[in-house]
């Protein structure tokens, strides 16, 4: 087996086609995860009875177990539940009609939700308590003070962690191969084994992921500058 | 898909999976050792601002933090023997475990390097100056003044690192290592009780990460007892009081923001 540098380029072009799949998994899991995370964080911060405990258990469980197990449990467990319910209530819907990528979307959103919950919580805790008190003393409702005062500042504080989470989910999306979704990693596997050039194919995949990660980091740094503008020092 | 759910299987699978716990822990321990050594080697040029080496460690950090561990595993497994063949070293007979520990070690090294750098930088500059003023050598200042304080700051990040590593080892089965996840897949295929095996698997991971977290939390309490002697409140309040710690932890906490 001889190293073939030109094949890296060939593989690179073939892998480009799989980028949308990887990005869509990342985007869906980050967006859905943020919503789940924000809700979970709120439940825990306002200590809503029962729900807060459930939220804590959810975060602990997800953060304590590998992402792969979440995917596999959803992949094998969800059809069982759906088919059971469908039979019981006589729905015509069956789990077979869920596309493979759907399992990746659902499971990765659940994973991202737990990590996002910590990101949101840390961001909100970073906002000075006096800000909320000031907002309420000028007559804002709880919702108004959250939306106008707390969230914009929390977002700025949470941005570095948020970017980390996005990168984490981008890298985590490589696990989708386990449910036969053809993302960049799975495509690299296919390209590698059909041409018997493993090193070159994975090198190309690594380069793509590296590029995407650096891109996300750069964009996050730009947004951070913009969102954190209120927080700069100086007189002007 | 598979046989109907039977909770009994979860319990019967637990001891079978625990048989391979040793392999998982071996990967974790081996990679942690490799990772801490690699982390120091990478962090030093950045802390002491050594010209060329600093750029190299920057590239190392960017690469290992910028690509998924799964890709790195395949890359090293297939690539390393080929590259070393060019310099006349034959690795084709090396055990898979070697590649697995090396890859996880180098991957962890990137996060360890950032942890080391950030914790050392979080120690007040005046402390070092005071040490020098008292006549300590640079080595003495590091080992007696910086290290004990940096350790306390590093522990929460280290805890995240270890747990992330533990969870990442679930990918070693892709190279054919029979650790817990690999074993779970075999059990699932044999008995067709997939969901039960994975529930048992998740449960074991949960217990291990919970134990590790508690142990490291105890270590953190022990190492930071010089701070806030009278103030026994939780760390989050301490962060609010000390502005500098807060920004430091915002930079380094979590580290890995996802499952893999």
UniProtKB/TrEMBL annotation, chain A:
Topology in membrane: Multi-pass membrane protein
InterPro entries: AA_ABC_transptr_permease_3TM, ArtM/GltK/GlnP/TcyL/YhdX-like, MetI-like, MetI-like_sf
Protein's UniProt keywords contain Coiled coil: no
Sequence ranges assigned to domain ABC transmembrane type-1 in this UniProt record: 19-220
Keywords in alphabetical order: Cell membrane, Membrane, Transmembrane, Transmembrane helix, Transport
NCBIfam families: HEQRo_perm_3TM
The protein's name: L-cystine transport system permease protein TcyM
Organism listed in the record: Saccharibacillus endophyticus
TrEMBL record, chain B:
Main subcellular localisation: membrane
Stored InterPro entries: AA_ABC_transptr_permease_3TM (IPR010065), ArtM/GltK/GlnP/TcyL/YhdX-like (IPR043429), MetI-like (IPR000515), MetI-like_sf (IPR035906)
PROSITE patterns, sorted: ABC_TM1
CDD domains named among the record's database cross-references: TM_PBP2
Keyword Cell membrane assigned: yes
Residues annotated as domain ABC transmembrane type-1: 17-216
Keywords: Cell membrane, Membrane, Transmembrane, Transmembrane helix, Transport
Transmembrane segments: 20-44, 56-80, 92-113, 145-166, 198-219
Cell compartment(s), UniProt: Cell membrane
Protein's UniProt keywords contain Transmembrane: yes
Topology with respect to the bilayer: Multi-pass membrane protein
UniProt record similarity statement: Belongs to the binding-protein-dependent transport system permease family.
Full protein name: Cysteine ABC transporter permease
Naturally occurring in which organism (per UniProt): Saccharibacillus endophyticus
């Amino acid at each position: 087996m001889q190293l073939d540098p030109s094949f890296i380029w060939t593989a690179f072009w073939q892998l480009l086609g799989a980028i949308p799949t990887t990005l869509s998994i990342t985007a869906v899991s980050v967006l859905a995860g943020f919503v789940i995370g924000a809700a979970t964080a709120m439940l825990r911060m306002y200590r809503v009875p029962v729900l807060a405990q459930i939220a804590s258990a959810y975060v602990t469980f997800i953060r304590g177990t590998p992402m792969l197990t979440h995917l596999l449990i959803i992949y094998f467990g969800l059809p069982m539940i759906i088919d059971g319910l469908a039979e019981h209530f006589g729905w015509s819907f069956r789990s077979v009609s869920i596309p493979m990528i759907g399992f990746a979307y659902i499971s990765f959103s659940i994973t991202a939700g737990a990590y996002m919950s910590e990101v949101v919580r840390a961001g909100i805790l970073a906002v000075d308590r006096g800000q909320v008190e000031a907002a309420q003393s000028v007559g804002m409702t709880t919702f108004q003070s959250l939306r106008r005062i707390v969230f914009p500042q929390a977002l700025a504080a949470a941005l570095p962690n948020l970017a980390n989470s996005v990168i984490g989910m981008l890298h985590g999306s490589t696990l989708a191969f386990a449910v036969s979704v053809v993302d960049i990693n799975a495509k690299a596997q296919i390209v590698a084994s059909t041409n018997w050039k493993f090193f070159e194919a994975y090198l190309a995949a690594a380069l793509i992921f590296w590029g995407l990660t650096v891109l996300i980091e750069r964009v996050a740094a730009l947004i951070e500058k913009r969102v954190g503008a209120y927080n700069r020092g100086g007189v002007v | 898909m598979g046989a109907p759910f039977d909770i009994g299987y979860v319990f019967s699978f637990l001891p079978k999976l625990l048989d391979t716990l040793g392999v998982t822990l071996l990967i974790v321990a081996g990679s942690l050792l490799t990772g801490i050594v690699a982390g120091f080697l990478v962090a030093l040029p950045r802390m002491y601002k050594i010209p060329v080496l600093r750029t190299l460690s920057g590239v190392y950090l960017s690469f290992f933090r910028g690509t998924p561990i799964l890709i790195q595993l395949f890359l090293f497994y297939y690539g390393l023997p080929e590259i070393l063949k060019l310099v006349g070293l034959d690795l084709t007979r090396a055990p898979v475990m070697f590649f697995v520990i090396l890859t996880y070690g180098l991957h962890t090294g990137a996060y360890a390097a950032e942890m080391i750098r950030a914790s050392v930088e979080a120690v007040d500059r005046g402390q070092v100056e005071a040490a020098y003023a008292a006549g300590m050598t640079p080595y003495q200042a590091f080992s007696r003044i910086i290290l004990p304080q940096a350790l306390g700051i590093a522990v929460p990040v280290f805890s995240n690192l270890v747990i992330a590593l533990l969870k990442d080892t679930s990918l070693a089965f892709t190279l054919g290592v029979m650790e817990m996840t690999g074993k779970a897949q075999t059990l699932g295929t044999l008995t067709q009780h997939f969901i039960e095996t994975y529930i048992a698997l998740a449960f074991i991971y949960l217990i291990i990460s919970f134990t590790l977290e508690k142990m490291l939390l105890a270590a953190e309490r022990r190492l930071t007892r010089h701070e806030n002697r009278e103030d026994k409140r939780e760390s989050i309040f301490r962060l609010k009081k000390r502005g500098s710690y807060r920004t430091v932890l915002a930079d380094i906490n979590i580290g890995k923001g996802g499952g893999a």
